[in-house]
Amino acid sequence: MRIAFIGLGVMGFPMAGHLRAAGHEVTVFNRSQARAREWQRQHGGASAATPAEAAARAELAFLCVGNDDDVRSVVLGEEGVFAGLAPGGAVVDHTTASAELARELESLARERQLGFLDAPVSGGQAGAEKGALTIMVGGAADVFARVEPVVQAYARCVRLLGPSGSGQLAKMVNQICIAGIVQGLAEAFQFSEQAGLDTAAVVEVISQGAAQSWQMDNRYRTMLAGEYEHGFAVDWMRKDLGMVLAQAGSMGLELPVTQLVDQFYADVQAMGGGRWDTSSLFERMQRINRGDRE
Question: What pTM was estimated for this model as a whole?
């Protein structure tokens, strides 16, 4: 298919590469043209000067940018994807954004005879590079049927979960789970260290039982080594949890653990760890228990 891919960050760069490797004709756009040129050097394909230009010949346009404002900036206006995509095309937004934005853009897309899916992903940079992402999708079933075979190029699991906005709501569920699990690991590892146990050995045992999780399997070594210059940044997690808490507030729902962990991530930011991996909650625990919280 003829595909436009907008946003070549740590996720979008390999995702667009998988589409190219699957045989699709891919045109990319990135705000940093140097990044687009590097993608071309590695994968071939083409690059465009604007999102509209990238979408001009495309049947499908994929987005993977930062937040609601970023999505609007590449979709709307004379240089946006909607302006370039011909009727009958569809937009797939892999950005973790708000459910309200998804519904807004799906309505605008319909007016232009375009399809729109909100399709946030989970699996991190490693999942994107390996082509093993989980994709949570909201939107119309007929649009999803066209898109599903294409996104299999970088998906381990992809599922339509309901109408527009459902993908973003499901991603919020995902982030609630992760926040609680990572804080639980931070507390458990701190307890283990203080008790004088070999924490790595403990994890190797308990990870074979009911305590096992993706976060435990993939983060315990770096947590114990104090290595956080990788993975999903605290700044991005706070952006996501902010949307979670706003959505919960609109539903009259209290999420006390999520709210607490969000504040713990604010502490990590105050420590200078905004770009650290979310597993850096363990660093916060260690500093608190050493009495040197900054």
Answer: 0.94
